Amino acid sequence: xxxxxxxxxxxxxxxxxxxxxxxxxxxxxxxxxxxxxxxxxxxxxxxxxxxxxxxxxxxxxxxxxxxxxxxxxxxxxxxxxxxxxxxxxxxxxxxxxxxxxxxxxxxxxxxxxxxxxxxxxxxxxxxxxxxxxxxxxxxxxxxxxxxxxxxxxxxxxxxxxxxxxxxxxxxxxxxxxxx
Length: 179
Hints:
CATH architecture: Roll
Low-confidence stretches: 75-83
């Protein structure tokens, strides 16, 4: 009896497979007609390649213009200009302080802190760390030294290159809540 049940299941499975395979043999005549119609259409012309623009070389006249590899002398022209070697100059021998690795516009004053005669500005760096900064410390990439701290801002004196070997003094500040 078990053997008969297996044979019935086997025959039923074969019959089911035959029915499924017969469903796959549809007529593809309409597809062949569509392909023939597409092939009969005239081909569309391909647009021509645009003409190549001719190259006109540029003659560099380096002696008549300013040197493109030097900083413009006109930058900071409102500031006091120092002559080469005699005016203020940054101290390149002193060790750099932590906040000198950031541009001033990325630093933010978040408050002040005082204890006795000492007074500090609280400055947040771009990573969100708060630093105590007293008068005399340096901040920013332009040799900015803190000259005054009030309840609302930190005033700095920066030294920027004038492009001719000298240095210009520029005043800068960071207001409370900036950034």
